[in-house]
Design brief:
10% helix, Immunoglobulin-like, HSP20-like_chaperone, four-stranded antiparallel β-sheet, single chain, 138 residues, Small_HSP, Hsp20/alpha crystallin family protein, four-stranded mixed β-sheet, mainly beta, A-crystallin/Hsp20_dom
């Protein structure tokens, strides 16, 4: 059995629940470009994949997830330090990304998005046409 040994920690936890419950919590993320993709990892430990919602409207990606308490209704909770509730994050995507082909996977508490760079934004070689110089008639 776990014992409560720090009364101030409990007060901090209660204050956080009271004052922070009105706003959704942000989720931690990493993002980097690998080849022709933008890779984004969101830390969502303990989240049921069915509670994750992803949507893109214009160039804004919205990520929403919910973590519920594992304690059954009416249980006498001894310690509750893991945050529960709704977690949200918005990413503003540039028009150089192909939002029609976003791939999402959830594994080991990490949501990974792979967003391809749009074809029009990829570097390309421009061929220069050569021709004989026009000679002016005298």
């Amino acid at each position: 059995m776990l014992m409560r040994t720090d009364p101030f920690r409990e007060l901090d936890r209660l204050a956080q629940q009271v004052f922070d419950s009105a706003r959704p919590a942000a989720m931690q993320m990493d993002a980097y470009r690998a080849g022709d993709d933008l890779i984004v990892h969101f830390d969502l430990p303990g989240i049921d994949p069915e509670s994750i919602d992803l949507d893109v409207e214009q160039s804004v990606l919205n990520v929403r997830a919910e973590r519920r308490s594992p304690a059954p209704e009416g249980a006498d909770v001894i310690v509750a330090e893991r945050p529960t509730g709704t977690f949200t994050r918005q990413l503003f995507l540039g028009d150089t990304l192909d939002t029609e082909r976003i791939d999402a996977a959830y594994d080991a508490g990490v949501l990974t998005l792979r967003i391809p760079v749009a074809e029009r934004a990829k570097p390309r070689r421009i061929q220069i046409s050569g021709g004989a110089r026009k000679q002016l008639a005298s």
